[in-house]
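Here we describe the complex-level prediction in full. Unlike the single-chain runs in Section 2.1, the two entities below were treated as one system.
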Amino acid sequence: MDDDKLVMRARDFWASTLLILVSLFFIWRTLDIPLLGGADNAVKKVEWFNSAALVPLGIFTGLLLLSISLLMRSIREGGAARAFNSVGLGWDAAEALRFTTLMLIFIVYIVALVPRVDFINASGLVITALIYGYHAGQRERMLLATATVVVAGVFALVLHFPQSEWNAHGDDWFALVLWIALTALMLWTGRGERMAWVTPMIAIGAPLLLICAMAFAFRQNVPNRSSLIFSQIEYHYYVTLRPLWRD
Amino acid sequence: MDFVLSQFLGFGGAFVALIADPWTYVYMIGSMFLGITFGALPGLTATLAVTILTGFFGNKIPLDYSLIALLGAYVGAIYGGSYPSILLNIPGTAASAATALDGHPLAKAGRGGEALGLTTTASFIGTLIGTFALLIFVGALLLISKNIASPEKALLALFGILLSGALMSEDLVIKGWIAGLIGLAMAMVGLDPLLSEPRFTFGWSYMMSGFQVVPVLMGAFAIPQIIAGMRHVKAGTLLQLSDRILPHFPTIRRYMPAIARSGVIGTGIGALPGVGEDVAGWVSYGVGKTVSKEGDKFGKGSVEGLLSSETANNACIGGALIPLLVLGIPGSPPAAALMGAFMINNVIPGPTLDPAIILRVVAILVLASFTMFLMGLFTARVFIRILRIPQTVFLPVVLILTTIGSFSVGGGINDLYLMLGVGFVAYFMNMLAFPIAPLVIGVILGGMFDEMFRRSLFLSDGDLMVFASRPGAAVLLALNAALIASQLPPVKRAFGRLRKRAA
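The structure predicted for the assembly as a whole is:
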């Protein structure tokens, strides 16, 4: 068996173990749903064949059996023996760092920035950070880009955590300053590079175009309507621009 | 014969209505451009193109127009995958992986323009073959499907998930089935369809309505692609075209039997629930290599090899829409995204679907294939320029697109949490070689399976024979059982012995 297959079987060992635990947990949770017939205070309870627990119980039992089968195969083909060391699992520290930083950026963007910070501002910062951090494949840039987004997100969370404060602008200004600083750094370090001057255009243009299309062309709800930049766009769209063709 | 004639007349009416509306061209050309771009950029897929457009157009414009946008992008993206396959030797989508085997050697030999011209024509003919099959078979099957009751529907949904798991898995079939079961389990969240009993909501009111389809699709298809693609990649060598991109009709005429064969294979594979364009491309290529007189030239720049895969992957589109429209079971991952668009418009594909929608779908596919043909011949150099854009530049924009698309469908931040959660799970599943398509098909079909399975038992008062007493149900039960049995070790060993004896 080639090395890639062995690495896969070692990973299967942990995947199947996790799946067994998840299946057992959900089988236990499914048992809370009424399954068997009978009567409660003379009121007939649900029959087994009509119970809401029937299909989930079948699914999680199936998942449990398949996971056990995968675990047995993994053990039989040498996966268990390799599962307890990093080489056997095919651990790649650089790849793990890349994934962790990306995960942090995504979580901070969705959980902290999108609900609280102006969408154009937050998305511009994230686009700049992703291109700056990952285009050249340099570890330092990746860490700096992640730190910038995380600092913006933590600031937003600390300053305006409750939903009642999501419309406040303190975190908008802070994220804007970080975005400008990161862009300036990118332009400085990438003097003469095409990517350095293309990135700010994408970072401003893409979210601006998307949010305007969603709000004014499709008339849909958009995140954080009363934020720093978008509230101004919305005001001028309805007060300054729209009357031009409405009148 | 009357039936075929009435279908053609219905199609004619739908086509005239389609081309008479000026907005058709706006949506068609825009979505076709976007679709070809998504197909041409390695790292973006046809499924992602349809998913993102579902987020944007799904419930924001009338269904008639959103179908133009989604089908235009679907056809364009499957075709667009051939550009990097031929010029970079990197498949733009999984569907065009087999195209690279012969397309790139042709381009290296200075016949890149000819190869692109041939793939454009083959994709055009392939789409028309699939669409023709859709027009003829969907009407006939709809008549039959009116007799399909709850047991057949439950068994069909299960068959779709099992088949998709078996055919889409790159490593072990068991992993495809686990992915399908995870999808089914996700569909169980929320109020159950018969008794409104809350399941696995953990006291969170958002979960009462279950997982929304669009954020799940966005998470499953977009987030893993973005994570996998955000890395420094040395740009591949883009081969320059030294010849013109023309259809080469004499070559097409010469290889017409191969094109027709590939079209039929592609349509047939597309019609299998949950099996996509990539399988169609490879199977057609494999069959072509076996039966062709120039099979030994396959992989070395064979025109027939190129036509075999490219015709089949586009013919698969029409085929994949047959089970979707007749039974409500998506025939491929992009068709699953298309089903999401139907669902958020409260249109339920299946026996109760308005036949006018089917005729409109056929008309849109025909117009899409003509648009693709013309854009492929006259604007190919624009798409070749797009190939130079690094994925670290366009993937961050895809993240923003998916975020605002997911948010706007449900209008809530919870959908974004769901998208992110599903995205991380899908990334790990990709890393562990669990296929994503069965998971998505499980999520989409889970509700139907649960409702139909329990309704069958309810109507039969708990008699399990309800799944075997009707002829259709008995056949489907046998197919499900055979599919599961085929993966059991003793059965596999027995088949292995039989094969050895036959050899």
